[in-house]
Amino acid sequence: ARQHPGAPPQFFAAEMNLWTRERLDLETRLRRALEAGQLELYYQPQIDLKSGQIAGVEALLRWHHPQLGTISPAEFIPLAEETGLILPIGDWVLRTACEQARAWRLAGLPPLRIAVNLSALQFAQAGLVQRVEEILADTELSPGELELEITESVLMRDIEGAAQTLRTLHARGVSIALDDFGTGYSSLAYLKRFQIDRLKIDRSFVRDICADPDDAALTQAIVAMARNLHLSVIAEGVETSTQQRFLCEHGCDEAQGYLFSHPLPAAEVTELIAAGHPL
Ligand code: C2E
Ligand code: CA
Ligand code: CA
Ligand code: CA
Fold first, then answer.
1. Domain EAL: where (predicted)?
2. CB under 5 Å of ion ligand 2: residues
C-alpha cells in the first residue's frame, strides 16, 4: 500500500489497525444483532401522484445498537453483503415485511404494495424464488402485494441468470422495481430483456430537477421511456412540492420522499395508511 505523503508511518499503521478492529467488531455485533432483536424495519410510503393516496411502502432496515445508537443501512449493508450475513438478514427482512403487510390486511386497512430491497447476494442465491414462495405462503400474502427492488448492477453480474430469475418471479406474480435507475450501465439495452414492472428514478436526478436542465431532461426522458415500455415509474428522494409538481406534470406515476413522509416505524406508518394519505 502507498504511504500517505507526510503522514508518519506509525500513524498510518495505527489507523489501519483501528479500522480492521472496528470492522471485525462491527461484524461480530451485526452477527448478534439479528438474534438480539436489534434490527427493525421502517416503512416509507410511496404516493400515487394522481390520487395522492398511498400506493405502497418500502421496507428500510434499521439497526438499533444499544451503545452506538441507530446505525444506517448504508454503513452495515455493504459489510453484511461481504460477509454473507445479508442472507439471514435479508430473509428476516422479507419475512418481517410480509408479516407486516398481512397484519395491515387483517386490521382491515386498504390493500397496498410492500417493497423489499434485495441485495446482490440474495438475488443470486439458488433458492431465492422458493424462499419467496414459502414466505408468501406462510403469510398468506398474494404475490401481487410484494415488490422486490433490485439495482441494475445486480442484474448485470449474470445477465442470463438474472433474466431467468426475473421471468420466474414475474410468472409467480411478484413485481420487480429497478432501483436507483439511471445510475448504472447498459440499462437501456437490457431493459426489454428483463421482466421489470417499475423504474425507480434515482434520487440524484430528482434532487436538482428544478435547477439543473440536464437532470430535468433526463428525468423527463426516463418517464417517457417507461411509459412507452408500459412500465410504471416512481421517483425517489422527493423533498419539495416543486419537484412533486414537475414529476406529476411530466407523467411520473408515483413518488417517495421526505415531502410525504420519512421512513417510519410500523406503528406510525399504520396511522398514515389508515388515513389513506400522508399529508
Ligand atoms: P435505497 O433503496 O435507495 O433507499 C432509499 C434511501 O433514501 C433510504 O435510505 C431512505 O431513507 C432515503 N430517503 C427517502 N426519502 C428521501 C428523501 O426525500 N431525501 C433523502 N435525502 N433521502 C431519502 P436508508 O434507509 O438509509 O437506506 C439506504 C440504503 O440501504 C437503501 O437505499 C438500500 O440500498 C439499503 N437498504 C435499506 N434497507 C435494506 C434492506 O432491507 N435490504 C437491503 N439489501 N438493502 C437495504
Ligand atoms: Ca430501494
Ligand atoms: Ca433507491
Ligand atoms: Ca438512490
1. 23-277
2. 117, 149, 179
Q: Which listed ligand is nearest to 177 at the C-alpha?
A: 2
The 10 Å CB-count burial string (b at 16+, else e) for 151-181 is: bbebbeeeeeebeebbebbbeeebbbbbbbb
Question: The whole model's pTM is what?
Answer: 0.92
R_g of the chain computed on alpha carbons: 20
Q: Where are the alpha helices (DSSP H) in the chain?
A: 9-35, 73-83, 86-106, 120-124, 128-139, 152-156, 159-172, 187-191, 203-207, 213-228, 241-249, 266-275
Among the listed residues 13, 14, 44, the one whose alpha carbon sits nearest the alpha carbon of residue 239: 44
**Listed residue (157, 154, 142, 101) closest to 270, CA to CA:** 101
In terms of pLDDT, which residue wins out, 189 or 209? 209
Q: Which of 67, 66, 68, 73 is nearest to 89 (CA)?
A: 73
**Distance in angstroms (rounded) separating the CA atoms of residues 182 and 225:** 12
The two beta strands, 254-255 and 146-151, are unpaired
Measured in angstroms, how far is the CA atom of residue 13 from the centroid of ligand 1?
34
Q: What are phi and psi of 135, to 5 degrees?
A: -65, -40
Instruction: Determine the atom of ligand 1 nearest the C-alpha atom of 93.
Output: 41
ipTM: 0.97
In this structure, how many other beta carbons lie within 10 angstroms of the beta carbon of residue 196? 22
Nearest atom in ligand 1 to the alpha carbon of residue 256 is: 15
Q: What contacts 158, CB < 8 A, 6 or more positions away?
A: 124
pLDDT band (50, 70, 90) for residue 2: very low
CB of 24 within 8 A of CB of 249?
Answer: no
pLDDT of residue 25: 80
- Distance separating alpha carbons of residues 59 and 94, to the nearest angstrom: 9
